[in-house]
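Minutes, project check-in
Item: structure for the 300-residue chain
Input as provided by the requester:
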Amino acid sequence: MSHRRQFLSACAATTAALLARETRGQAPAGKPSDAASPPVAVFAKPLEHLEFDELGRRLQSLGVQGIEATLRQGGQVAPPQFASDLPRLTEALAKYDQRVLIAASDINQVSKENELQLQQFSAQGIPYIRMSYYRYDLAQPLLPQLETFARQARGLAALCQSLGITALYQNHAGRNFVGAALWDLQQVLQEIEPRQLAVAFDVRHAAAELTQSWPAGYALLRPHVGAVYVKDFAWTDNRPQNVPLGAGVVQPLFEQVQQAGLRGPLSLHMEHIDHRPAALQEQRWAAVVRDVNTLRSWLA
């Protein structure tokens, strides 16, 4: 709705200036990176039909630094195939000066199986994993659940630190997603160093979920941010609809985050074309190219 965009645009300068003052002179959370030129990863979900070598060649032509690979059940490489296919993926990308910057995983706590997967990620030089989501049981009290999630996150953070990996938790809109409200994610992470486990701050999901109040939630989470996720949406019949980057409401919101200082990698997600049909692969690729060029113009 238009009044939402007008409000967010109007408050941009004030919020960004406040956040910039709060964080000036602080070292970035997560892996060190050039704040002026953060590495850009393309989320690989719309590109899963491409052979690994072809994926690397196309990514190199875009001038990005790599991918957020889907290393989970149903993804580019599923856990049972990690030993055989994960090295093939990383080697194919390396031929084109690309890498797996983030592994989108099914991991959100410590287990023997998850530890083995993390060891395999570490062996391939993957610096970040995206965790799977914590979800509330809305029929039960929430605060005890947050304590459980915080305990699980602390254990995972310690394991990731031992392997030289930073875990990322993405805030995702939804009725029972931990982190959708932003403040609750701060409760989970308050005792964890961001170099161990940080927030993948998703501007689209924050704005769609919280509309006008998301800048306050972002200010609360700011010390924990280790990556930024980029995609766009527009309000249609009072519902968020995914659109090409630059065609929705996200740019002025991204600018607020950018002015406060980008931390860690950027992961570009293209959600407005169905990821499943192989017949749409070239249409999806054209959309990714278009969105990368738009993001490049935002970063210029």
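Outcome recorded: The longest helix spans residues 142-163.
No further action items on this chain.
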